[in-house]
Amino acid sequence: MTDIPLLKSRLPGLRIEDHPTLVRQKSRDFFWYSPVLKRQLDHLTADCVIFVRTIEDVVEALAACYALGVPVTPRGAGTGNYGQAMPLAGGAILDLSGMDKVLSIAPGRIVAEAGAVIADIDRRCQAQSGQELRLHPSTAKTATIGGFVAGGSGGVGSISWGGLRDFGNIIRLKVVTMEAEPRLLDLQGEDLHKVSHAYGTNGIIVECEMPLAPAYDWIDVIVGFDTLGAAAAFANNLGEADGILKKQLAVVAAPAAHDCFNRHRRWLPRDKHVACAMVAPQGYDAFLTLARRDKGAQLLFSSHDLPAPERKGLPEIYELGWNHTTLRALKVDPAITYLQTLYPFPNQLALVDKLHALFGDEVVAHLEFVRFDGRITCFGLPLVRFTTEARLDEIVRIHEEAGVPVFNPHRYTLEEGGMKQTDAAQLAFKREADPKGLLNPGKMIAWDDPGYDYASGRTYLFKGMQQAAE
Amino acid sequence: MTDIPLLKSRLPGLRIEDHPTLVRQKSRDFFWYSPVLKRQLDHLTADCVIFVRTIEDVVEALAACYALGVPVTPRGAGTGNYGQAMPLAGGAILDLSGMDKVLSIAPGRIVAEAGAVIADIDRRCQAQSGQELRLHPSTAKTATIGGFVAGGSGGVGSISWGGLRDFGNIIRLKVVTMEAEPRLLDLQGEDLHKVSHAYGTNGIIVECEMPLAPAYDWIDVIVGFDTLGAAAAFANNLGEADGILKKQLAVVAAPAAHDCFNRHRRWLPRDKHVACAMVAPQGYDAFLTLARRDKGAQLLFSSHDLPAPERKGLPEIYELGWNHTTLRALKVDPAITYLQTLYPFPNQLALVDKLHALFGDEVVAHLEFVRFDGRITCFGLPLVRFTTEARLDEIVRIHEEAGVPVFNPHRYTLEEGGMKQTDAAQLAFKREADPKGLLNPGKMIAWDDPGYDYASGRTYLFKGMQQAAE
């Protein structure tokens, strides 16, 4: 149990809260999307919350916690789904949301503090320079850029730019280590892998330099199809249409689109499988041409044709995608949960059909098309009717046996989640940056279990540092 | 033979020149890159040149030529290599270079007259809005946008955006038909195929609306390798790196880079196969990281590290690519000619190696990496040591038998060039737009030979209109 009076006395300049209601509120992220994580993590709470506003605050806070042996779990807005911000060992939540300044905007790049909210960054960039971030999660309106880099993998924009794991999608990070005298590291290139998608286990991200893309008045469209296969094939075609700039491209199987997208429901017949996309206005005519070529396609919704008053109150299309699809399904049916899967190129369409046939209503297809290693393919974020944990594990196994790797959102460790591969290089860096193992403890198996075999053959989105460099 | 006094009397407001030197100069494009076309077309000349400055001028000129039965061959800057601007049947050259106005610039799009020079468009867009054209030929400094649309296929920018055949890379075209009363057509969507890459056989393009991309201070880099295979693999990797924005990405085999790129020669060891790229500054660190990962890669040249005085006089990297590579080789050795080939995904690297081994020094590899149907692959524009036309045809056949389609730049018809597939729909449009067959006569086999089988199985870059729509 953290000695809070002592901690406060060491950090007289910082706001530290220990009111249980507030601490519990700040000790929760969106882990509850998973019934498994909900069972495992729901009771957890930190002992206090430290609010920081500057890099110096972070350095001070980490030095004091290091001296006192207080575990530190960093937190942005707490919108992660894999439990990245859940404090497994009590201690302090380090709330970075006060570090929210945009520091500079230039052609193609922005520097912002880690706690800056993504939508705020985009508003600033759009107003000042007609630019916006390449990538953001569907939670852009609340999520912070630092939290995204620390635990996101991609999202809106990935159809054009790939994911955060791809070099070039993060330019530079400033990171504070947790040592007797915390150091401020400036990481670029290969070193970005030390902290990207590491849940803050290897240092606290305090500043992010990110690439920008041009901001357009993206047009939201929904196209309907009689079969899931037809919707997926259309989305794949649209994805592969190199001349049509897209920001988002998803497919949701019937009847989930109608049932879950309540504000758009009047446009969505219940039996239609839909492709939802954001298209740059200069490519809208080309998009319509492609849609007309597809005999099975029916344009159900287009923000281009909608009078402004009717657009009011409608969520943007990206807020029907990624984990917002899951969220909307959960609101309709609390028994719904989800998976995160990868349909490997070039068999993505056949595999989508195969799994759809295999599971029927138990696993409702939700596909997110992306650029992946230079090709178009799709992730799955299927809506799963949850019965038991054993059945959920079985559904995971059936996917993997079919050749569809699962990044299991019902596991809170980096390795079991499947996003981040740890290795000796990663571990060596953690020994330097967090020698006492106080940063977000319990999230990296390789740290806690010296016998852990990180050389396993499974698919990781963020490859181990050594493997990546070889 | 054109009755020039009569034509002049019908077009009192237009400048019409018939001085043989001027007419011959305006009757030539870059057809002479091909020894075959040089033999076939070198003697050709039109009878006169009509200079136009407005759409009304074009309408008047076409009406008069229609009435008098004068063939009309449109011309921008005459930088095409397939003989697109060569007048096969005398008549008039319609010089559109006076129609050079930029009409409007908006986020993501520009409208320009057909005769506007591409580099001028880019300068205007860059200055006014930080934007530039997505695609341009290596001849951007002289080529016109209309000529590019009428006979180009892609080029600089294709590594990010694909080609002109891809929907979205041309937004809208205004075209004047050649009838008793010429019509001004506004073509979008499916209809763009009527005139894109049709050499002006289906109407005269007078205005182009094109998509724009953000303009960056692109960094020119050249990376050296000991083997062609290593250079091609690196370029393919860089192409597939979704987070690294590129504008140009080519590979040139040793010793051609050293021998032909004279201004860059001091950086280029003769035995190095090179990858030449333009990288966005926000991706430069990521590019360096990728290059460092490749044990065989050696950064030979980077404009990033070059003091401004040393950059003076150096051509931009894109002027070492596409047909500028051919041009530079031709200057060194007039016996060089070239081919244009496609290495189909996913076997591009194996096929590059195979053909390199097959031909040795007779066919020196020059690869241009592009996005093609949503994947990264490469075109070949190999430097061919020309001996006889029979051997050239044999080299073409060997490529095609190996699974590498050739868009034969030693043929001046649309069909034999292999870029443009004609079909009944295309032909029906030509019947409407050019009922007398006076537009660029002799370039469309399907028009001249009613028995022509346009359903052949060969690979066309611009698919027939019917096939595309099916």
Automatic annotation (TrEMBL), chains A, B:
Keyword Nucleus applies: no
PROSITE patterns: FAD_PCMH
InterPro entries referenced in this protein's UniProt entry, alphabetically: FAD-bd_PCMH, FAD-bd_PCMH-like_sf, FAD-bd_PCMH_sub2, FAD-linked_Oxase-like_C, Oxid_FAD_bind_N
Originating organism: Labrys wisconsinensis
PANTHER family associated with the record: D-2-HYDROXYGLUTARATE DEHYDROGENASE, D-LACTATE DEHYDROGENASE
Keyword annotations: FAD, Flavoprotein
Coiled-coil regions listed in the entry: none
Name the UniProt record assigns to this protein: FAD/FMN-containing dehydrogenase
Residues of the FAD-binding PCMH-type domain: 42-215
